[in-house]
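User: Fold this; tokens only.

Assistant: Input:
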Amino acid sequence: MTVAHAVLVSEADFIDAQDASAPRGLAARRYLLSCGQCARRLERDLMLFGRGEIPVRPEEVIEPVRIIEVLPAGTVNGTGTVETPLARAPVAGRNLMTDWKPAMRVPDPAVRVLDERFRHYVLPLAKLERLATGCRWAEGPVWFGDHRTLVWSDIPNDRMLRWDAASEMLSVFRQPSNYANGNTRDHQGRLVTCEHGGRRVTRTEHDGTITVLADSYQGKRLNAPNDVVVAADGTVWFSDPVFGILGDYEGYRAEPELPTYLYRLDPDGRLDAAAELRSPNGLAFSPDESVLYVVESLAVPHRRIVAYDVRDGSLGEQRPFIDCGDGTPDGLRIDEDGNLWCGWGGGEGLDGVRVFAPDATPIGHIDLPERCANLAFGGRARNRLFLAAHSSLYALYVNVRGVR
């Protein structure tokens, strides 16, 4: 029989561990657990609620901590409580990438419900999977339902990769890729790609030839197109920050010639600067395309997501939608109910996908062992979420369908 002891420990960086007058339970500086799954779950609770409950065995406590209370052995459902300020608690002695393993039990503890509205979207029997690894910076996943494959960019390696759902095999889709970043498909099924290397947006025709959609504005070169979406009327919207020309890792170092605009490209080839932002990044339309959401990566004081009402193809006034605080948003996608699924970063407890309701309330989170740059809905019913994280591709089935 598995024996579990429940321990009550505590972390308080602001209280001297030697202070004998400190309240009982606040003397321990930190907790360290060898059980990675337990530690991850505990960290999540600590960050969200300031306290966490977790079953542990005595041997799992690998650093001396002040044990305040030990419940009787002989049960696996005893719990211990950790109280801490609302901050991420440190966990040492683990390599998140090499130690990562899929959950053995369901529901997967990596899928967190922050608001009861999210519970409907969680499939109790679905687990987070890692489909591929070995990238230097994975980005821009796009689903090809006609041949059941996912294509995504590995920017520093100057290639695009392809994962086949039928064979579960990984192959190179394009190399060199001109340091491709964001990808989508238009309504004719053609691949539309943002390229750092060429500082352009291209379209791959059905015969494999490449058409340049945009590479300059008012006689000046674009910066480094980052992410792209195609509206129902065929207009192509893309962001153009400078990240891809800041050095030679994800493109070619160059001086920017233009402000960091959000662009609209009409089907007739007319290119307009629709808005100027502090480094626009990921973008996505609401299901009825009445709202365009855009990540503003260098907003002050925090990164944020802004929203524009869209009327007759034109943007209304910008309005703040989400202040991301310590989080690092990147790419995003929208489901059929209008929820925003956002690639998220910021360290343990933040890395993964943060889900927001249409009223901007955070309702769910999917924990990953690394920052998630971008994501895409795919699969037969568009209910499989593909997550392009720093070095790996992950997937999770959810109980909602994504929109384009």
